[in-house]
Automatic annotation (TrEMBL):
Pfam family of the protein (one): HTH_3
Protein name: Transcriptional regulator, contains XRE-family HTH domain
Single GO MF annotation: DNA binding
Keywords: DNA-binding
Residues covered by the HTH cro/C1-type domain: 13-67, 87-141
Top-level lineage group: Bacteria
Matching Gene3D superfamilies: lambda repressor-like DNA-binding domains
InterPro entries reported for this sequence: Cro/C1-type_HTH, Lambda_DNA-bd_dom_sf
Entry keyword Zinc: no
Length: 177
């Protein structure tokens, strides 16, 4: 079996349903969706809408963020090289080693190294931590936008904003006379 991140949303949904010992008909009823729609979702012939994902998450008692991330996993996998390059660039510009950033993000260095090399997709929570730490959007990290965040009024590049952020956080040296 390929890595967990390569599973389709449909396979993951079926796995969750089976874990709860539910039939397709039972899950469809609990989620308030048509059984034929659920069947097509599990087969991978239909992409879930955000509303469907919310209903399924509630019915399966699963975190919405996890199910939403799984629904978008194909797009995430396709944008992994961009994510890896941007993560590497942001880390280097901030002057951090992988060890230092891993400690800041509360993850293992091997996980961060895998994300930075493009061999491993970041989990949803790690993606959020990275975006928050570097003050960039998830859309930017995954290459869906060129701008790094909403509201960048100065028109700065990500690299310029990172440098500016570092400079703002440097302790000012005081002269003692």
């Amino acid at each position: 079996m390929k890595g967990d991140f390569m599973q389709t949303f449909g396979n993951y949904l079926k796995q969750l349903r089976n874990k709860k010992n539910l039939t397709q008909k039972e899950l469809a009823r609990l989620a308030g969706i048509d059984p034929s729609t659920l069947c097509r979702l599990e087969q991978g012939s239909r992409k879930p809408t955000p509303r469907m994902v919310r209903k399924l998450a509630r019915a399966l008692e699963q975190p919405l963020a996890e199910l939403m991330a799984r629904a978008e996993m194909k797009q995430i996998a396709e944008n992994l090289p961009v994510f890896a390059e941007r993560l590497h660039s942001l880390r280097k510009l901030s002057g951090l080693t992988q060890e230092q950033l891993a400690e800041i993000l509360d993850c293992r260095k091997s996980v961060l190294a895998g994300c930075e090399s493009g061999r491993r997709p970041p989990g949803y929570l790690l993606s959020l931590k990275i975006a928050s730490y570097f003050n960039v959007s998830l859309d930017y990290l995954f290459g869906l936008t060129e701008g790094n965040k909403d509201g960048n009024q100065a028109g700065l590049t990500v690299e310029q904003e990172v440098v500016l952020s570092i400079l703002k956080n440097l302790p000012w040296l005081t002269c003692k006379t």
